[in-house]
Description:
- The chain is α+β, with helices and mostly antiparallel strands.
- Helix content is 22%, strand content 33%.
- It contains 9 helices and 17 strands.
- A hairpin with a 5-residue loop joins strand 10 and strand 11 (244-248).
- The radius of gyration is 24 Å and the shape is globular.
Amino acid sequence: MRIFKVLFCGVQPANVLAIRPLLMAVGLAVGALLPGSVARAQSPRFVIDDEEYVATVTNASAKLLRAGKLKSVESLRPQVRAGSIPVKLAPLSRHALAAPDLCDRLRRSTLAVGSFYKCPDCGEWHFNSSAGFVVDEEGIVCTCCHVVVAEDEGVKESYLIAADDTGQVFPVQSVLAADTESDTCFVKLDAPGLKPLPLRTGARAGERVYCLSHPGGYYFMFTQGMVARVNRKRNEMLDEHGHTNGLLTRPILLLNVTAEFAPGSSGAPITDEAGNVVGQVSSIADAGEPEIGNTNAPPSPSVPVRFCTATEELLRLTRSSRRAAHVAGKTNAPGAGPRSRAMH
């Protein structure tokens, strides 16, 4: 602004037109010095209509079902078992992005993953989604095990699908690898050419992080916060139908973050400023004290403590020559948090 002030000082009205070309040239020069601001001003704004998006996904899923291209959730559940697979991991990103640009970047790699099912009450077909993100351009997507195995006893017919931000639907063909203890798995889509997110280990408390997810059916919600704590915690094991069975897992490396998410966010990426995944949305615990004499009542005050599976756990599912480059060493933190609930 100082440049413009100097040019206007002492200029008489009769001479303004004469220097207009010079002012325009200076304006262009200043704009060139601010590429980030100009780029954001010119970038198309992503506007989501949740009802229209769900209708698009539902209609596309119905067409795929009629064509016999969908895999039932019932056929995929038995595939959720321990294992690892070769994965071509994306190289780490070294450049921090402005928040709007990071949101655009994550949206290209984050999917709505969930069931297309026939409602036992109304008889219509609906889409109930969580989230997942691309880890390999050959259509390998990371999500939570409970997204695949969760079961509604009233639903008799359901199919697992994934949809991008345009509403294009990809059938989930198989479950390639899973770790039920850390509640994470890789699923395969018939969707080559998707843009993967890099996996980065070694996240520390105090780091700024971001989340793109679909809380409560509000699609592509972008939030930011920080890593509040790194901890190890034993979770309750889930059976093949997504129910707890009283057994505890090994100590799982987790991140507590202040970036907001809610049920419907399971499987979403938690990233750093460069778009590297440092964790995956897993569960929420209610911190607080129950009412005296009523231990079954929700804690009061109820403060959500958000748990994310650390990338170190996700990498257990991979066999890759690049894996060593992503592992920054062991991260140890003592303690186990309050009982948490998995989210769909």
